[in-house]
Amino acid sequence: MFRSVARSAAGKHLLRRGYATESVPDRKVAVLGAAGGIGQPLALLMKLNPLVSRLALYDIANTPGVAADVSHVNTRSEVAGYVGEDQLKQALEGCDVVIIPAGVPRKPGMTRDDLFNINAGIVKGLCAAIAKYCPNALVNMISNPVNSTVPIAAEVFKKAGTYDEKKLFGVTTLDVVRAKTFYAGKAKVNVADVNVPVVGGHAGITILPLFSQATPKANLPEEDIKALTKRTQDGGTEVVEAKAGKGSATLSMAYAGAIFADACLKGLNGVPDVVECSFVQSTVTELPFFASKVRLGKNGVEEVMGLGPLSDYEQAGLESLKPELKASIEKGIKFANQN
Ligand SMILES: NC(=O)C1=CN([C@@H]2O[C@H](COP(=O)(O)OP(=O)(O)OC[C@H]3O[C@@H](n4cnc5c(N)ncnc54)[C@H](O)[C@@H]3O)[C@@H](O)[C@H]2O)C=CC1
Ligand SMILES: O=C([O-])CC(=O)C(=O)O
């Protein structure tokens, strides 16, 4: 995923690709919630990313230790830990990308929506600070319920007069990561060769993997497609139950978050044809936010791509996810405007 970076005599950062080298711009990335289950491994993965020059690790507690630890890794970026609201300004100033895995995770028996009451307020506060201190940053929202936290962020930015729909992303990469793994296992192909778009939202049936578009083609029977779809939709719950009260996916989420942030940085740096699925403002359906393939560029979203041809099974899945996704979006918008 990552390539090495060296410093030239002139002090510029050079990205090595085989024998060729090219300079990469300085980029500051902040992780908000950096001392958490996702935050810590994500901090490490972002420290390993040669496109990052400054890494700001913010949480309400414990970030000095995480930052000291990660800062000893032998890569280009300078790492700093920030703790408590007084230091949020410093953490955010100058950021190109802000990744938000702050908030409580699920326990067995809970839905992602059960996290709303606590996480909505956390996200709202953090987004108000982003609007103030780094209004131009790309925001990668991980905190659940993503189907509501992204609309909350949009409303906070609108109120502050800083909203740019090209810069707000709900991170749904873990759904793609899971769909790829499960498909590769069933189709008996190398997961590194697999691609599966996942559209809709990030909770239960709103997660809609499009296995009819999966590559390489495997012509799996309908019952396998249904089982793969269900497993992808329940992937988060599979981990929550296996962890039995100790939280939800953290390591695979950090991996997925690092892939998505890397794609954002590549887009900002002008790398062509960077495409990832993400939950963004959208006109792909009648819903105001929807996850689909998105082309990333120098300003964030360059193109929200359409769904492509759907099987009858996927078309039915699309229609049945809409009421739940609509309600989650509206809940977020209402919260942001009432509180
Ligand atoms: N989008 C996705 O695919 C996924 C989303 N998640 C979500 O990510 C969130 C975090 O999960 P974990 O890291 O496992 O939880 P965790 O509880 O281990 O870590 C959360 C961290 O957020 C911090 N935090 C709380 N309030 C904060 C604030 N106001 N400012 C900054 N930091 C604050 C906590 O101190 C803690 O260190 C949860 O909401 C979870 O549901 C988890 C997995 C996948
Ligand atoms: O399931 C959860 O609560 C965490 C999550 O979003 C996921 O793992 O996809």
UniProtKB/TrEMBL annotation:
Its EC number is 1.1.1.37. It is an enzyme of class 1 (oxidoreductase). SUPFAM superfamilies: LDH C-terminal domain-like, NAD(P)-binding Rossmann-fold domains. It is found in: Mitochondrion matrix. It comes from the Eukaryota. InterPro entries: L-lactate/malate_DH (IPR001557), Lactate/malate_DH_C (IPR022383), Lactate/malate_DH_N (IPR001236), Lactate_DH/Glyco_Ohase_4_C (IPR015955), Malate_DH_AS (IPR001252), Malate_DH_type1 (IPR010097), NAD(P)-bd_dom_sf (IPR036291). Keywords: Mitochondrion, NAD, Oxidoreductase, Transit peptide, Tricarboxylic acid cycle. Gene3D superfamilies: Lactate dehydrogenase/glycoside hydrolase, family 4, C-terminal, NAD(P)-binding Rossmann-like Domain. One of its GO terms (cellular component) is mitochondrial matrix. GO terms for biological process: malate metabolic process; tricarboxylic acid cycle. It catalyses: (S)-malate + NAD(+) = oxaloacetate + NADH + H(+). One of its GO terms (molecular function) is L-malate dehydrogenase (NAD+) activity. Its main location: mitochondrion. Homodimer. PANTHER family: MALATE AND LACTATE DEHYDROGENASE, MALATE DEHYDROGENASE 1, MITOCHONDRIAL-RELATED. Belongs to the LDH/MDH superfamily. MDH type 1 family. NCBIfam families: MDH_euk_gproteo. This is Malate dehydrogenase.
